[in-house]
User: Fold this.
Amino acid sequence: MKIHRPLGLSVLVYEVVRMVILLVLSVSLEPSGFVGPALIGYLLAPQILFALIALFVWIDETRYRDYVSLYVAGKTLLVWAGLLWLFSSFKTIVKALMMYTGTAGEPFMIAVLVLIPFEIATIIRMVLYMKRPAEDH
Assistant:
């Protein structure tokens, strides 16, 4: 019988909840130009791989241990893209936080902003996981 670690399960639950939140918020977006719910949904679809990697690592840590480095690399790119967006759209984000007008894009922007520290925490968690010897799993 395999012993599943609660931290591995917490990463899996976080990934599933994150995807559900972002997909629900993307549906509420109003189309503006070529950016709309469909485009955001297509951009979010590949991120399901993070949830799948977390699921496989939680199910069988020794067999899927090599995928953790792929998870960390993808999450690092995601954080860098999020920080780039944060710095390039800083005025719009501050306006959305201070003067919440209820437009459909504001909850999505705020959710992406709030998720950046959680993304960094999952990167740290998985890097620490990679640092442990394989026998400890």
